[in-house]
Write a structure and sequence with these properties.
Blueprint: E1 3-10, H1 14-25, E2 30-34, H2 40-45, H3 47-64, H4 80-104, E3 108-111, E4 113-116, E5 121-125, E6 131-140, E7 144-146, E8 159-160, H5 162-165, E9 174-178, H6 182-193, E10 197-201, H7 213-225, E11 229-231, E12 234-244, E13 247-254, E14 257-263, E15 265-268, E16 272-274, E17 288-289, E18 292-293, E19 306-308, H8 319-333, E20 348-350, E21 355-360, H9 363-368, E22 373-379, H10 384-389, E23 395-401, E24 407-414, H11 422-429, H12 434-439, H13 449-457
Parallel strand pairs: 1-2, 1-6, 2-3, 6-19, 8-15, 9-10, 9-15, 10-11
Antiparallel strand pairs: 4-5, 5-6, 7-16, 12-13, 13-14, 17-18, 20-21, 21-24, 22-23, 23-24
Length: 465
């Protein structure tokens, strides 16, 4: 007889484990099936390990410039083995924390590969043994994997995806990074801090092409100051790949002009693909478009009793988005009336140097949507905390609608700015106007003052510029 549950969740990544905990809190008998480790991509080969290494890189950068603060230290040396060991310690600690939370909330955790096997049935194979689960409601939370490109197949030695980059046992002498989205610029930043020669290749006209155009331009300026070679508007010919004694060689073209790049490693960072294979979707009413499962505002698919959250459900591929979607799906299943997740309220953070925090529409997107746009920009060089830090590159930009007085977007680039974007996210939830953002009292001296100043700059009333 199949084991009976109110909710069965396939995948224990960010969306899956949070959904499981919330379901248990609401009194639902819950099972979560995971073929690898709880925590998923974010915890094991994404957000957490990369940020742990980036924290090491940030400290290394600071030590290289300590003499400017009056602190004399011997030239710092990077011990990559220790950095990797610490990275894994962070991951292990957080993994144990999730395991504890699942046990505490009496969630049944099953190791194995799961797929839909008919209405209300989930078949599990491998892991803890073959079994069937019966559940009135199923949540698909299977996440994504690095996108592969024909001709640039990963070989675990010279051509790598972000997964393999986290497993290498040394700092490469040189690296070509294909793709200047969030993943690409984070790895480019990390390895440049660690001493690698880095070339960043992006097909679109600027770095971080999903961000505001001024953010991409500022990031390129700061990267080039750090010695990262940036090649936006550049295509890479996959058929030109040559594996040689030095690593790899590839041909790239910018405005029709070709050049040959040589490096020890080619990192392919061109996005992620949803994990939808062998889930049993065939034969159901679920609709899949461009590799994403169609869902409604409550994360329900067209198949009765089946919800989908996270990377497979479209939109931003972000752990915190998946977590909130998991809660929405479960509360809908439990008969509550959860508010839909507004994509405009989901902040985005990129942990390169300098960091990027953003929310809502870019200036270009707002104009393309037909909005009457007013922008306020405040530079970090006018902020006292940035001056104290010795890190005054970057700015905060507020995009507003002149007709409605709505804040449409907030975009920040600079030192440690990922910690700031939660403020505008709360303001957007509460429908704060630029005036209200500007009149909110920020402590002095803090970097948070740039939020109010940029908001006041929308109407030309910023104080410190």
């Amino acid at each position: 007889m199949p084991e009976r549950f109110d909710v069965a969740i396939i995948g224990a990544g960010s969306g899956g484990y949070v959904a499981a905990i919330r379901a248990a809190q609401l009194g639902l008998r819950t099972a979560v099936v995971e073929q690898d480790k709880v925590g998923g991509v974010c915890l094991h080969c994404g957000c957490i390990p990369t940020k742990a290494l980036l924290q090491t890189a940030s400290l290394l950068d600071a030590l290289h410039h300590a003499d400017a603060m009056g602190v004399r230290v011997a030239p710092p040396e990077l011990d990559w083995a220790v950095a990797n060991r610490r990275k894994q310690q962070v991951v292990d600690r957080l993994t144990k924390g999730i395991q504890f939370l699942l046990r505490k909330n009496k969630v049944t955790t099953i190791k194995g590969r799961a797929r839909l096997a008919g209405r209300g049935t989930v078949a599990v194979t491998g892991g803890d043994g073959d079994r069937e689960l019966s559940a009135d409601n199923v949540i698909l939370a299977t996440g994504s994997h690095p996108r592969r490109l024909p001709g640039l197949e990963v070989d675990d030695r010279t051509v790598l995806s972000s997964d393999e980059m986290l497993l290498i046992d040394h700092v490469p002498r040189s690296i070509v990074v294909l793709g200047a989205g969030a993943v690409g610029v984070e790895f480019a930043s990390l390895y440049r801090s660690c001493g690698s020669e880095v070339t960043l290749v992006e097909m679109l006209p600027r770095l971080v092409p999903l961000e505001d155009h001024e953010v991409g331009a500022e990031l390129q300026r700061q990267f080039e100051k750090r010695g990262v070679r940036c090649l936006p508007g550049t295509s890479l010919d996959a058929s030109s790949l040559e594996r040689n004694e030095g690593g790899i060689a590839v041909t790239v073209a910018t405005d029709g002009k070709e050049q040959r790049l040589q490096a020890e490693i080619l990192l392919v960072a061109v996005g992620r693909t949803s994990n939808l294979d062998d889930l049993g979707i065939e034969g159901t009413r679920m609709k899949v478009e461009r590799g994403m499962v169609d869902v409604d505002a409550r994360m329900a698919t067209a198949e009765p009793g089946v919800h989908a959250v996270g990377d497979i459900a479209g939109g931003f591929q972000l752990a915190h988005k998946a977590m909130h979607q998991g809660v929405i799906a479960v509360e809908a299943i439990a008969g509550r009336d959860p508010s839909p997740l507004d994509a405009g309220l989901v902040p985005r953070t990129t942990y390169c140097t300098p960091q990027i925090g953003s929310l809502g529409l870019s200036e270009e997107e707002a104009r393309e949507a037909g909005r009457e746009v007013s922008c306020g920009v405040f530079p970090l060089r006018a902020n006292s905390r940035a001056a104290i830090w010795g890190e005054d590159a970057g700015f905060c930009k507020v995009v507003a609608d002149r007709a409605t007085d709505d804040v449409l977007g907030v975009h920040i680039v600079g030192h440690e700015v990922t910690e700031l974007i939660a403020g505008p996210a709360l303001g957007a939830l509460l429908e704060a106007t630029p005036f209200e953002m500007g009149r909110a009292v920020a402590p002095h001296p803090t970097l948070s003052e740039i939020l109010g100043e940029a908001a006041l700059a929308v109407s030309g009333e910023a104080i410190h510029i």
